[in-house]
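How a chain folds remains the central question behind the approach discussed here. The record that follows shows the chain in one-letter code together with its fold in token form:
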Amino acid sequence: MKRRDFLTTTAALASAPLVHGAVSAQAPTQPTAPVAAPVARKGRIKQGAMRFNFAPGTSFDEMCRQAASLGLVGFDITGPKDWPTLKKYGLISTVSILGPLTQEDGMVRKELHDTLEPGVRAAIDAVAAEGYPNLGVLGGQRKGLSYEEGADNLVAFLNRVKGQAEDKHVTLLLEMVNSKYEDPNLGRKDSVCDHLKFAVDVIKRVNSPRVKLVFDAYHVAIMDGDVAANLRENIQHISHFHTAGVPGRGPIDETQELNYRFLAHTLVELGFTGYVVHEYRPSKGGDPLKELARAIEIMDV
């Protein structure tokens, strides 16, 4: 499932007092299916996956079984319909995406703030009810707005909801993405949040322990470069990390520009306690499961 399609299907949760009651009623609290003994990991970096790390046509149930066997802790970009399956295999939603925000019309649209706020508040409640740590929030497209006005609008919206996030112990995660590539598999066209400095400045202005940054090394490399130094400089604002190869958003192996083993050691050195989630696309003709196992091994330092 593409992220854009997933966001469209979850937008209906803007009306969500029904959401969290329904999910809580059906979600088991303990794993209910046998899983092969997971690969032993060092545990210094907690790793997760995305759906598109797996072979096309793989059911989410099977993805979760494979992920648990590989020693992963969860999945990004999940919503209420996924949560019972995650729990079945002892996994978590490392970042939940639900509510009315989209890549096109996110927090940058000031004229939509009154309409968007109830859905984001309902999403915070739903994530908190399941005990999950993070809710993704989307900046949206500038559509002619200046970066200064866009930043003001993001800060204004986050200030509306940060108190609830703090009370519910849910971290709102803003991701810096690249706007260089218009292909949605490679970038985010016209994104307001397309430079690290912009994202960090927004987070600093909001000044909440529950508003943090997704540091996506792929996007940072494309837009700003100097990945390790940027990671070090901004680590206090970062609570989630994404991997993907540069160029092409492929698997993170020795054929790629970025040295993820070095970045993994840097994260450990910096005392990073968040999640590292793989957001690469499998190679054409490759074995997705072997590529995922290799990516996990690279980051397992």
Notes: Residues 1-34 have pLDDT under 50 and may be disordered. The longest strand covers residues 211-216. The radius of gyration is 18 Å.
